[in-house]
């Protein structure tokens, strides 16, 4: 019987970071424990031992279905609604590129939309006439206020003679990292007849999710970020009512059917089972990652409860500690709902005249390459912020170390900005 691993130093022994390296940027690329890495390598070795046998008769038949069943059970969704894709970007792009837009259609998003998805919308709008309407919202708004702004926006679109076809919003946005009231936004979409497309890149493994209860029109989430699978691995959820809209994969796979054939039977799952030649072995690690997570403990809590509770608590305390060291603030609203996740945002004490994306890049490089501390400094609305990710292999001491290094780097930068690594 497996023994429990306490969050912090004990759990950290199961990850393979370089000695002295502090990874406070888990949200960007994720990582996975040694035990899951061993499972991954086993599948890679099997794939090379008998490539044809493995891909044709193991991967595309039994193994992919087992992985899909595992993630479907985890997010409380029917297996026939869940397929696996390399990452959230592929999933969202698949949805957007399959939908047909008309000139009167509008796609709604928030100003915090992931930049790559904004690029996809801009590209598609060059090819098909439709409107992209972005909601510029104050990041300190309460959940109630965010939902009111969203609903009024939808109503105004209708009054202006346009049709809101699709709304894209996050579970947790990327930069800044804030938890959105995605459950209520999904309900508003449903009541207004608008398709809801949820970018859940940071959702699976970080939040408790019940997709059947949430009932979005499209949902995508990475597994390699917060669930501890190898890169690249993500789940795309499309309920049965919308599967006829997703006719092609990216790229178009072997099981594509022309309209007349597709209309006779549902081809959604088969379509995603054979998409070009890729390394699908990360998908097969989902069951192993879920089993490993059951071993984690935090106080009296175990498994998912332990991981999610520990990360949220560490993010709260760690973010405030760094803010205290820097003499600034944590980004949140009065209800503290924006920071109800495993990431936190702290404003850096840098005057607006010295704030830019280039400076953010240089700060990240300096912290990472010179001081062995991975953080995510970014430029947002005339200020520099740092996003810090909590994870079970970290403790409060790591946030303190990052805060002190940040303060040192910023003091040096204030005196001589050439000291930053460009």
TrEMBL record:
<feature type="domain" description="Aminotransferase class V">
    <location>
        <begin position="56"/>
        <end position="332"/>
    </location>
</feature>
<dbReference type="Pfam" id="PF00266">
    <property type="entry name" value="Aminotran_5"/>
</dbReference>
<dbReference type="InterPro" id="IPR015421">
    <property type="entry name" value="PyrdxlP-dep_Trfase_major"/>
</dbReference>
<keyword id="KW-0808">Transferase</keyword>
<dbReference type="GO" id="GO:0016740">
    <property type="term" value="F:transferase activity"/>
</dbReference>
<dbReference type="InterPro" id="IPR000192">
    <property type="entry name" value="Aminotrans_V_dom"/>
</dbReference>
<protein>
    <submittedName>
        <fullName>PLP-dependent transferase</fullName>
    </submittedName>
</protein>
<dbReference type="InterPro" id="IPR015424">
    <property type="entry name" value="PyrdxlP-dep_Trfase"/>
</dbReference>
<keyword id="KW-0663">Pyridoxal phosphate</keyword>
């Amino acid at each position: 019987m497996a023994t429990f691993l306490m969050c912090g130093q004990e759990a950290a022994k199961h990850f393979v970071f370089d000695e002295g390296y502090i990874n406070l940027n888990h949200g960007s690329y994720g990582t996975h424990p040694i035990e899951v890495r061993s499972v991954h390598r086993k599948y890679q070795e099997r794939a090379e031992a008998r490539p044809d046998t493995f891909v044709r008769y193991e991967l595309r038949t039994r193994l992919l279905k087992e992985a899909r069943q595992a993630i479907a059970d985890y997010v409380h969704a029917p297996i026939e609604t869940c397929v696996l894709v390399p990452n959230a970007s592929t999933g969202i792009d698949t949805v957007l590129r399959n939908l047909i837009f008309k000139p009167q259609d509008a796609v709604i998003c928030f100003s915090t939309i992931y930049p790559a998805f904004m690029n996809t919308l801009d590209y598609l709008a060059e090819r098909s006439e439709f409107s992209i309407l972005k909601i510029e919202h104050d990041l300190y708004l309460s959940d109630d206020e965010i939902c009111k702004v969203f609903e009024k926006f939808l109503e105004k679109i209708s009054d202006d003679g346009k049709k809101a076809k699709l709304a894209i919003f996050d579970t947790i946005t990327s930069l800044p990292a804030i938890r959105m009231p995605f459950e209520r936004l999904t309900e508003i979409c449903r009541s207004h007849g608008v398709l809801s497309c949820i970018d859940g890149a940071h959702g699976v493994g970080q939040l408790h999710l019940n997709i059947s209860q949430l009932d979005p029109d499209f949902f995508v989430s990475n597994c390699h970020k917060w669930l501890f699978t190898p890169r690249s691995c993500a789940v795309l959820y499309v309920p049965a009512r919308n599967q006829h809209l997703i006719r092609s994969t990216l790229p178009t796979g072997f099981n594509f059917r022309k309209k007349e054939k597709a209309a006779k039977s549902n081809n959604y799952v088969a379509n995603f089972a054979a998409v070009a030649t890729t390394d699908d072995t990360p998908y097969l690690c989902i069951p192993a990652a879920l089993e490993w997570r059951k071993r984690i403990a935090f106080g009296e809590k175990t498994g998912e409860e332990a991981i999610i509770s520990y990360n949220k608590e560490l993010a709260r305390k760690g973010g405030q500690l760094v803010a205290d060291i820097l003499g600034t603030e944590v980004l949140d609203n009065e209800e503290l709902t924006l920071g109800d996740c495993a990431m936190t945002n702290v404003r850096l004490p840098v005057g607006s005249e010295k704030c830019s994306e280039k400076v953010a890049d240089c700060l990240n490089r300096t912290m990472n390459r010179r001081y062995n501390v991975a953080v995510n400094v970014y430029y947002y609305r005339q200020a520099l912020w740092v996003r810090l990710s909590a994870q079970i292999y970290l403790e409060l001491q790591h946030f303190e170390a990052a805060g002190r290094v940040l303060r040192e780097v910023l003091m040096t930068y204030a005196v001589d900005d050439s000291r930053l690594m460009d």
